[in-house]
Write a structure and sequence with these properties.
By secondary structure, the chain is an alpha/beta fold. The protein contains 16 helices and eleven strands. It has helices at residues 2-29, 47-56, 80-88, 104-109, 146-151, 164-176, 188-198, 208-214, 216-220, 243-246, 250-259, 262-265, 277-290, 294-302, 312-323, 327-337, and strands at 35-40, 68-73, 96-100, 123-127, 133-138, 154-157, 180-183, 203-207, 224-229, 268-271, 310-311.
Length: 339
């Protein structure tokens, strides 16, 4: 009987081993011969596009089967058009990814116009780094600190109500008592940056990461300065206060955390609905391997991009926290976030 029992155990172990090898083989073949599309809702050369194309040049080496990566720009409505496409029209094969604008979880939570997606159904892969959202002024024009910004009306250029360029100054007006006069109608960061350079606007909303990519000369030559930031605070801006720490009561801070949750997401990558747990795990593993790849790090360094990766699991946690926020918080945020 002992001999028979040992035989059965041996057969079970062999069976388990074969099953594990079969699953490993299936995993290695999941993306073999496939094209993985990365959709970007912004213009070529902007930060989401830059991050997506950088990842596309390196991630394939970290996925068995050597899939081909292709980046496609699907521009419109601040990225909403692209995310709507991923949600409803893109193939449900696990190979359709998007660089998701980090403002969209909060926009979905408040029922923003044009939202036809559910980000809870997306498979969050990772982000190269959180972003350091800032209100920025041109150095030497009399707006040199947060104290200066509180003293008078300040003209801020923005694209449209509902865009982050509008939302952040609107938030500070609501909870910090600023008198930002928000002028809308500017077409994207390039137009907004030109308004700042010309003096049409005294301040604009952007991020350190955007400035480094789109205006490296301004950054390196210190033509611009940041006088307030969102959390997580940047080590590159010592002494610059955050909106959250300036909030005078817990309810205001919770509102700021909700509105600015996208800072934690950074330039996040996610797979559209339809991916399996297996495909998401493959992509997450490849993403984290990519961010420690010397070739990737070397190219990112030349592009002045910081590497401080956010895992897919952490992105999922932040998104779910925003999407399940208390109704009272959502109602207070709605006029700030949504048109």
């Amino acid at each position: 009987m002992k001999h028979i029992l040992i035989t059965y155990v041996g057969i079970a172990l062999i069976s388990t081993s074969l099953t594990a090898r079969s699953q490993q083989a299936d995993s290695s073949a999941f993306f073999k011969g496939k094209t993985i599309n990365i959709y970007v809702g912004g213009t070529p050369g902007a930060s989401y596009d830059t991050n997506g194309r950088l990842l596309s040049r390196h991630m394939g080496r970290h996925i068995s089967g050597a899939p081909t990566f292709v980046v496609q720009n699907l521009i419109g409505a601040g990225g909403i058009r692209m995310v709507n496409y991923l949600h409803a029209q893109a193939p449900k094969d696990g190979a359709q990814l998007g660089m998701i604008p980090n403002t969209l979880p909060a926009l979905q939570a408040v029922g923003g116009r044009g939202v036809q997606f559910d980000l809870a159904q997306f498979g969050w892969i990772g982000s190269i780094s959180p972003v350091s959202v800032t209100l920025t002024a041109w150095r030497g024009r009399g707006l040199d600190s947060w104290e200066d910004a509180k003293k008078r009306e300040v003209i801020v250029a923005a694209s449209a109500k509902g865009a982050i360029t509008y939302t952040v100054p609107a938030l500070t007006n609501a909870i910090l008592g600023t008198r930002f006069k928000i002028v809308t109608g500017y077409q994207g960061l390039a137009d907004i940056s030109l308004a700042l350079e010309r003096g049409e606007a005294e301040a604009v909303l952007s991020s350190i990461e955007n400035w480094k990519v789109t205006k490296p000369g301004w950054w390196n030559e210190k033509r611009i300065l940041m006088f307030i930031q969102a959390e997580p605070k940047s080590a590159e801006l010592p002494g610059v206060p955050s909106i959250q720490e300036l909030a005078t009561n817990p309810d205001d801070r919770r509102l700021a955390d909700f509105v600015l949750a996208g800072s934690k997401l950074g330039f996040a990558m996610a797979a559209g609905p339809g991916g399996t747990a297996e495909s998401i795990n493959i992509l997450r593993t490849a993403f984290m391997s990519t961010t420690s790849d010397p070739a990737f790090i070397g190219e990112a360094s030349k592009m002045l991009l910081d590497i401080n990766p956010v895992s897919g699991e952490e992105l999922t946690r932040v998104v779910n926290e925003v999407l399940t926020a208390p109704k009272s918080l959502v109602e207070r945020a709605r006029p700030i976030i949504s048109e």
